[in-house]
Specification:
Elements: E1 4-5, E2 8-9, E3 18-19, H1 22-32, E4 39-43, H2 51-56, E5 61-65, H3 68-75, E6 84-88, E7 106-111, H4 117-124, E8 131-139, H5 140-147, H6 157-165, E9 166-174, E10 179-180, E11 187-194, H7 205-215, H8 223-226, H9 233-238, H10 252-266
Parallel strand pairs: 4-5, 4-7, 5-6, 7-8
Antiparallel strand pairs: 1-2, 3-10, 8-11, 9-11
Bound molecules: S-adenosylmethionine.
S-adenosylmethionine binds next to strand 3 and strand 5.
């Protein structure tokens, strides 16, 4: 397949793989189910494969695009330009509060550039109290990690961070052939729905993220070893956590209990 799609040469550095399979595009838009009057935000609209059918179902759409040529095309698009507010720049640096109307939480979606999908999800976790839901196309392997249960090989720090904040559902699997150029890996769309009240509350999310970074640093070591200098054996026992457990066997609730303990100690 050609590296040029609709007259645009795909740029690797921006993770550009453009969706062209109309069946898949329809399935994704049905899953997003956009409605008139909603506060929709698309990350990386590209050549508008998702933007056009979403805009067909609604009156306004905020889009964030880093590639100037693509942003220019969107702003001069014959049908779309009336409906779009185009923000040029890096979604990782965007303050998503900009798109928030207190009456209307955001609905964020996008076929994300795979090279930045994990840090972008961490960035968006800062805004979950203002987000109704998120639908993202990701590498299938990343979707598996987001949805992984304790004890599985793919369970790690991003599983804990995301599951603490959101209900996670894998919704559509997408083969490489649905894109131009095709990526080397399978893809999938995930739905993330932030909890209004998390079943596992944390007092300080940054504390949870820092703890998980250290806890999962060496998966083959015990939690006692990985958390040396942060929590000792007596403290782990006090929290009901087996110091000899491997990091991937502990639940989201266990990680939240450890993070809340550390937050309380600081205050
Ligand atoms: N939505 C289109 C589609 O489905 O065909 C394009 C998807 S392509 C995988 C990723 C898009 O994100 C590209 O348009 C790329 O230029 C844009 N992009 C890459 N990095 C970005 C960033 N940091 N912030 C905003 N957009 C970005």
């Amino acid at each position: 397949m050609s590296k040029t799609h609709l007259g645009h040469r795909a740029r690797k550095r921006f993770g550009q793989n453009f969706l062209h399979d109309q069946n898949i595009i329809e399935q994704i838009v049905d899953v997003i189910n956009p409605q008139h009057g909603e506060n929709l935000v698309e990350i990386g609209p590209g050549l508008a494969a998702l933007t056009e059918p979403v805009a067909d179902r609604t009156d306004h759409l905020n889009v964030i695009e880093i590639d100037r040529d693509l942003a220019d095309r969107l702003e001069s698009h014959p049908f779309l330009r009336e409906k779009l507010t185009v923000t040029r720049g890096d979604a990782m640096k965007i303050d998503f509060n900009e798109f928030v109307n207190p009456e209307q939480p955001m609905r964020v979606f996008g076929n994300l550039p795979y090279n930045i999908s994990t840090p972008l999800i961490f960035h968006l976790l800062q805004y979950t109290d203002r987000i109704k839901d998120m639908h993202f196309m990701l590498q299938k392997e990343v979707v598996d990690r987001l949805a992984a249960e304790p004890g599985s090989k793919t369970y790690g720090r991003i599983s804990v961070a995301v599951q603490q904040a959101c209900r996670v559902t894998a919704v559509v699997n997408v083969p490489p052939g649905a894109f131009n150029p095709p990526p080397k890996v399978e893809s999938a769309v995930v739905r993330l729905e932030p909890y209004s009240e998390s079943p596992t509350p944390v007092k300080d999310r940054q504390q949870l993220h820092a703890l998980c970074l250290q806890a999962f640093n060496q998966r083959r070591k015990t939690i006692r070893n990985n958390l040396k200098g942060l929590l000792n054996e007596a403290q782990l026992n006090q929290l009901g956590i087996d110091p000899g457990a491997r990091p991937e066997t502990l639940s989201v609730a266990d990680y939240c209990a450890m993070a809340n303990y550390l937050t309380d100690q600081k205050n």
